[in-house]
């Protein structure tokens, strides 16, 4: 490993801009290369974020011997092939969520990384936010007792453009994969794998979900009520209720800066802002893992990502949501 960790970025859309801006906040990091199918776009991006090299193909970037780790920010349906390309070229990977379209893809990616002893992590940035770290510590200390209920929603009113990535099935559209993954992530983080899942959804004419409601049951008899939608601006908050109190993750709960602890008829508010655009926290986790020779994060292990996509697969089956990769 170089003294500096050399990053590459594949896919240069909105999220990549925010990520690249946060890379600038990290010490001992260099943005070695960025890649787009459009060289002009890649060159402009490289200039904006001080990248050493701009590439007009993902293959060229994956073959750059100076790059240690590649952040993949392409649409959902390309995550598998892009990640496999990078792993097969000996590169560590941070792949945007969802890591794959289904559990088969994710399992294959994990096997590839392990066989090559390469680092791989799903970019669920929420896990590394300071407010989420505080929430975990409160739960570990059993501050609110045994968990009995989780409620989480994520919704915004999206313009019904059937060609956009939100509604285009070929790009992995639908609220479940795009934003529903956050309530599911939270429930998995807090209560583990549900023993029973009930679902209800509304589909668009492109056969992806614009609304998805979930009810999870757990072996502890705890329950989770989760929701995602492109049809309305919802509170986008989360509550974790326990036998001794409750924790609220304020809007927008997937990138929280405020959490409130309700206990003994009192409220304690914790203000825990994230740095930059919020991506720096997962960036530093990857940097730390690479410097320490780890092939996965203890905070977001590969088994967690496998469990997350397995739950999502169950939901997809129940609501009749399927993509080309599912047929393959």
UniProtKB/TrEMBL annotation:
Start and end residues of each GFO/IDH/MocA-like oxidoreductase domain: 134-247
Oxidoreductase recorded as keyword: yes
Keywords: Oxidoreductase
Record-linked InterPro entries: Gfo/Idh/MocA-like_OxRdtase_N (IPR000683), Gfo/Idh/MocA_domain (IPR050984), GFO_IDH_MocA-like_dom (IPR055170), NAD(P)-bd_dom_sf (IPR036291)
Domain Gfo/Idh/MocA-like oxidoreductase N-terminal: 5-121
Family from the record: Belongs to the Gfo/Idh/MocA family.
Database matches in PANTHER family: OXIDOREDUCTASES, TRANS-1,2-DIHYDROBENZENE-1,2-DIOL DEHYDROGENASE
Protein name: Gfo/Idh/MocA family oxidoreductase
